[in-house]
Design goal:
two-stranded parallel sheet, alpha/beta, 345 residues, D-Maltodextrin-Binding Protein, domain 2
């Protein structure tokens, strides 16, 4: 009887140990199979100034869907388009202050943090969109990322705002002399102002939100933007000519508040960077497709007379801008220009 009792107790202990062991094994498997995202839920607010129809917003919707899925719902994203939270300047300031998580301002606006960002606005700096992509994904982008990090911002990459081209209500633009005397709307950027002054135009800084009315009322004769943006904002209603000169390949910096980003786990940082990389690749592809279609739509739907500048015509503009290049080479340093130029080879 005593032996039976000892055997029963031993059997119960053995079963208990096996049960505990199995439970621990399940716990280990659960831990190993858990999501990459291992901190508390993250809620990212992203804001930009472009319409919902633009490539930026469409690709951001895919980014939201993808990151929420791949984080098992632990990262949630809200997107605010159309400048609903402010213009590029306000969005950049909000991100730097930490009241907004992610913004996509034009690099032209980032001259507030370093005048060297003006380099990216230099007309005819890159001879193709592909050259520009390679530069911003390479050491040129890394150079500017380090500048932003000192200002409390992490740049996750550079989406494409398209190849900027010119529309006019006066005449087509095919040679530098065609810009003389033209009242040209420009962003509040010293580079853009110098560009048109150098070629004899009358640059007029004006907010993008005021541009349609400015063209309509004759405050300005002409404007320059990527064709997709020109079409989306219906500037063709108040313009006659479209000149595809692709003078600047414009980018948007995808910036996040550094303090916030530093709080994330390494796994979360890696996931966010990976998803932003996917977003940038898709957005650039969409933007190139949209611009090709927009050029056609400006001519067919917008009834604008369209001309395309060939390589030789673009070189004429670049030659006419040599005084401007000499000026900014002294300001930014020739090494920075050389860094960009190597991507044109």
């Amino acid at each position: 009887m005593k032996n039976k009792k000892i055997f029963s107790i031993s059997f119960i202990v053995l079963i208990s140990l096996l049960f505990i062991g199995c439970s621990n094994t399940k716990g280990i498997l659960k831990k190993e199979e858990s999501s990459l995202v291992d901190d508390d839920a993250i809620h990212l607010q992203i804001a930009h100034v472009e319409p919902e129809s633009r490539s930026t917003h469409r690709a951001l919707l895919h980014f939201k869907e993808s990151i929420e899925k791949n984080s098992d719902g632990k990262i949630a994203v809200d997107i605010y388009p159309n400048g609903s939270l402010g213009g590029d300047v306000q969005l950049t300031e909000s991100t730097a202050l930490g009241t907004l998580d992610i913004a996509l301002p034009s690099t032209s606006v980032l001259t507030t943090y370093s005048e060297e960002f003006g380099l990216l606005d230099m007309p005819y700096l890159f001879n193709s969109s592909e050259s520009a992509f390679n530069a911003l994904d390479g050491d040129v982008g890394e150079y500017f990322n380090k500048i932003l990090e000192k200002q409390g911002l992490v740049c996750l990459g550079y989406s494409y705002n398209g190849p900027r081209s010119t529309t006019s209500n006066v005449k087509p633009i095919s040679k530098p002399e065609d810009l003389k005397g033209l009242k040209m709307r420009v962003m509040e950027s010293p580079i853009f102002i110098d560009y048109y002054k150098t070629l004899g135009a009358n640059p007029t800084p004006m907010s993008f939100t005021e541009l349609y009315t400015g063209l309509q009322q004759g405050a300005v004769d002409a404007q320059e933007n990527p064709p997709s943006l020109t079409f989306a904002n219906k500037f063709f209603e108040v313009q006659k000519y479209s000149s595809i000169d692709e003078h600047v390949h414009n980018f948007l910096g995808v910036i996040i508040n550094k303090d916030k980003f530093d709080q994330f786990s390494e796994a979360n940082k890696e996931l966010i960077r990976k998803e932003i990389d996917k977003f940038i690749k898709e957005q650039r592809k969409l933007e190139l497709e949209d611009n090709a279609k927009a050029i056609e739509d400006l001519e067919v739907i917008g009834n604008l007379k369209t001309n395309f500048l060939n390589k030789e015509q673009k070189e004429k503009f670049r030659e006419a801008l040599e005084p401007m290049y000499q000026k900014y080479s002294k300001i930014f340093g020739p090494e920075l220009f050389d860094m960009c130029e190597k991507y044109n080879n």
